[in-house]
Amino acid sequence: MTLRDISPAVHDLVGIGFGPSNLALAIALQEQAASGRPLDAHFLEKQQNYQWHGNTLVSQSEMQISFLKDLVSMRNPTSPYSFVNYLHRHGRLVDFINLRTFYPSRMEYNDYLRWAASHFAGQCSLGEEVQTIEPETDGGRIDRVRVISRDAQGRERTRVARSIVLSTGGTPRIPEAFRGMRDDSRVTHHSGYLNWIRNQPCVGGKPMRIAVIGAGQSAAEAFIDLHGNYPSVKVDWMVRGAALKPADDSPFVNEIFAPAYTDVVFEQAQAGRDRLIEAYLNTNYSVIDADLIEQIYAMLYRQKVSGQFRANLLTCKAVRAAHGGANGIELTVATTAPGAGIDADSETRRYDAVVLATGYERESHRRLLEPLARYLGDFLVDRNYRVQAAPELAVPVYLQGFCQSSHGLSDTLLSVLPVRAEEIAGAIHDALSANRDRCWAPSTVQKDGSQAIAAA
Ligand SMILES: Cc1cc2nc3c(=O)[nH]c(=O)nc-3n(C[C@H](O)[C@H](O)[C@H](O)COP(=O)(O)OP(=O)(O)OC[C@H]3O[C@@H](n4cnc5c(N)ncnc54)[C@H](O)[C@@H]3O)c2cc1C
Ligand SMILES: NC(=O)c1ccc[n+]([C@@H]2O[C@H](COP(=O)([O-])OP(=O)(O)OC[C@H]3O[C@@H](n4cnc5c(N)ncnc54)[C@H](OP(=O)(O)O)[C@@H]3O)[C@@H](O)[C@H]2O)c1
Predict the structure, then answer these.
(1) Which pLDDT belongs to residue 140?
(2) Are residues 54 and 185 in the same domain?
(3) Is Plastid a UniProt keyword of this protein (predicted)?
């Protein structure tokens, strides 16, 4: 049985998720309040112990973006929430300068985000997973929604919001062949890697054969970690393509991640937006940091010299079926002709475990907003990330991380966080003020038929 809280609090804004997107928003809202435009905002985060992709923080993992693109600096370099101030507060500024890098470890960046988040402890409830967002309706205009969350003990809680910002990030993409193995503890998606590997027999030195699937940054980091930290593991890395490809982070291309480029994408018709996104997919998807590719090549070459083969890269391989049995996981693996997508050959391979580094889907907004779906159409957003809704829904709903197709490749990344947060913070304030003005306008008719009093 679930226990339900019966006295919901009402907030101007409820933010779902407290990853970097909503954390940047909380900071922008604080600045906006200081300039005389306060809003009462509360955030809900499902993790009890706040982390940034915490189960992927292997020791070798580095940021793929300059620390200057932190939560605030591109909007307000004097903000106390900058990465530089974090270093200063932790007594590491000089040492960090000596590292001579723009790319801190992801462990350190996680610590930075935790530090920034700790300043908003009073505004964020950790350990509460939002289940759904429902309209509060009496059949007419909807001025509020109910946000229903559940904690680890199964207690349900309802909060009432005048606006919503949904920033729940990606959801693991599980290939069709593995859908029936969701409960098999021998298979993990990369998003759960560290928790999973801790419980594998290789931690105690037992021999294991592990397959890694996918050709992106996550797969590369899992491959290196398994080979480097678990000497009893033999790892096969299977990719569908003919070669590992580097992420293009060259300076001219990198200009597509500038805040101004959001307008360039948004102002196109959809076909133009699609073309711009397609043209630069190799900055982010199915690609690997060039330095890491060099490291992997050198590592595989050293094996050729020593004649000891513990790690293999298998190209042009596609898993067609997976079956978990008492003797391990059997994969039916097809060899595809490069470029043709046609199976040339097929074989069965057996593993003790599988890591699916198969990327992420961005669909959770549709599930959480399902009770409002009839008002939200196809979730098209305006320039300020507000979903274009039917007029009955007066509650503005904003999305962060689900707008790549309209706002460009930056949308799922850290690139434009400070600027986007400011745009959304201002838009919410304006939308709620407009709602209030509408409610208080002299001509507004009350439910009982009398006229409302004009606001002072
Ligand atoms: C391993 C990894 C490394 C990355 N490294 C980089 C990088 O170096 N540079 C870069 O620009 N981008 C990177 N990215 C892209 C990444 O999307 C962004 O860095 C960033 O995490 C986006 O922030 P977000 O807040 O939108 O989403 P997330 O960081 O995914 O945060 C979403 C938050 O919402 C919470 N949540 C989800 N559902 C619910 C719910 N129902 N109720 C309550 N809370 C919920 C989650 O627990 C999470 O804390 C990386 C992605 C991954 C997977
Ligand atoms: N250090 C870091 O900063 C760091 C670390 C990890 C991740 N990230 C970021 O996280 C984001 C996601 O990266 P990611 O590597 O997790 O995902 P990704 O780049 O989307 O790559 C997913 C890979 O999975 C493969 N794949 C998908 N479905 C498959 C299927 N059915 N069968 C076989 N293979 C399949 C894809 O193959 P194809 O190539 O054949 O399509 C692709 O190579 C990126 O922004 C990345 O930069 C950053």
Answers:
(1) 87
(2) no
(3) no
